[in-house]
Design goal:
alpha+beta, disordered C terminus, 196 residues, 12 strands
Length: 196
């Protein structure tokens, strides 16, 4: 009887640990199911950064998650997605990841949105992950941020650690530039007509 209990516990641990990154159950709270353990409250040993502080609809951003410099630590798993606040409402996921190397990463379709979230493809230890994210074509979401959970091992993990906010690029400057160009062309045409 005790042997059966040990086997069952091992099966449950293997299932809920999600070593292959199939973590659809964690899409919303980004919490790995690792009973009886809870998220670490210590300072996270990694950084979450982006290639730009702004984004535009349909634009592409490189997102990097890596261990802090001079750290000997590595991580086994992660979950990453873009999010936004609309007043008090948290909107997730936003946009999609592209060019996902399926030997290293698993695309997760949270809220039935294809490639909207990424996780690890195996429990192989790593120090750095770099992914390409594509913004939605609409400017509806406004400013966004990336949120990540990182798993050092089954007992030690950090949940919902956020990047700096990425501001939605204003289209006002480009509109003003287009207006200036149109005005110059119009003035040039008037000048030509005067000399006709």
């Amino acid at each position: 009887m005790s042997l059966l209990a040990v086997v069952c516990v091992m099966c449950v641990e293997e299932y809920v640990g999600f070593p292959n990154g199939s973590v659809v159950i964690s899409c919303g709270n980004m919490m790995p199911v690792h009973p009886p353990f809870t998220p670490s409250t210590s300072s996270p040993p990694f950084t979450l950064s982006t290639s730009s502080a702004t984004y535009r609809p349909g634009g592409v951003i490189t997102v990097t998650m890596e261990m802090v410099k001079n750290s000997s630590m590595e991580f086994q798993g992660f979950l990453l997605q873009a999010r936004s606040w609309n007043g008090q409402a948290l909107l997730w996921p936003i946009g999609k990841f592209r060019g996902i190397n399926t030997t290293l990463f698993t695309a997760v379709h949270c809220n039935n949105m294809e490639n909207s979230t990424v996780s690890q493809a195996s429990g192989v230890k790593k120090k750095k992950v770099q992914l390409t994210w594509e913004a939605p074509s609409s400017s509806y979401y406004g400013d966004i941020f990336f949120s990540a959970s990182l798993i050092q091992d089954y007992t030690t993990f950090w949940v919902q650690l956020n990047s700096s906010t990425l501001s939605l690029e204003s289209s006002g400057n480009s509109a003003a530039g287009a207006l200036s160009s149109s005005t110059l062309i119009f003035i040039s045409l008037l000048s030509l007509c005067v000399h006709c």
